[in-house]
Amino acid sequence: xxxxxxxxxxxxxxxxxxxxxxxxxxxxxxxxxxxxxxxxxxxxxxxxxxxxxxxxxxxxxxxxxxxxxxxxxxxxxxxxxxxxxxxxxxxxxxxxxxxxxxxxxxxxxxxxxxxxxxxxxxxxxxxxxxxxxxxxxxxxxxxxxxxxxxxxxxxxxxxxxxxxxxxxxxxxxxxxxxxxxxxxxxxxxxxxxxxxxxxxxxxxxxxxxxxxxxxxxxxxxxxxxxxxxxxxxxxxxxxxxxxxxxxxxxxxxxxxxxxxxxxxxxxxxxxxxxxxxxxxxxxxxxxxxxxxxxxxxxxxxxxxxxxxxxxxxxxxxxxxxxxxxxxxxxxxxxxxxxxxxxxxxxxxxxxxxxxxxxxxxxxxx
Length: 365
What we know:
By secondary structure, this protein is α+β, with helices and mostly antiparallel strands. The protein has helices at residues 3-24, 30-52, 98-127, 163-175, and strands spanning 241-246, 261-266, 277-283, 288-290, 300-301, 311-312, 314-316, 324-331, 342-346, 356-362. Helix content is 24%, strand content 13%.
């Protein structure tokens, strides 16, 4: 097989792999990329070797007879032309270009200079204390003067202060004379209190007592009438079931012409209870409806492939939409109420049509 045929086969294989790479894009398997790189290197070496091979010029006018083959023993080995090695790209430090290495060296040099400058500045700050604008040492290093409280005795207005107290106050003020005027304690000035002179009480004159007139006897007041006590409020009836949850009408729009209420009658641990029914009364028409008995499983659901799914064990459908309110409650098979009444208002306007959901939960096991 000639060298040209080898080259053609590798070129065809390389073109097929490149079409593969163009189809897969960034998700091309690593084996295909490695084979492409290998084929490119082999073709580069083969083409360079073919270019360096000397070409023989043949004169078509002269046909020389083929030379006889020499025996193997006397045949001399041909001098093989050394194949030049392909020039490989020289990679620098960690496969980085010279510009990248120069940039890293420059940044490292600048960082080193900045670090040395920071160390010198910190040493200067530690050895030279901070000066203020007037060239004096900072007053923050000095401890503030301690102010001693001044105790001034309370002067008695009827007993003037003795001279010893006045002298003590003068000494304290003299010691605090270094303080500014805003801090210096004010001098207490005794306030003169007027002396109260008791006045003579007027002499009482005996006044003759008038003759006493007998007071007429009043009849005793009638006994108070007893006020009747307010009637004792009748306690609200207690039911074994309570309303635990209702739906959100924001997500309960419907285009169905009939009213549908999905009801879950459960125990305290959310287990469906069967054998009960729901009774409804419509106002103002007074229409009365009763549902079928509830199931012991989650047999009623609004939908299974929507985002707002509600499950129940009973579905109550009283009739078409009309203006009014439906009051519903849970009852046993004989119609005895077992829960408080839940009210749902509806409208005949199709834009306000909704379906509803409610949970009646038993209070105890």
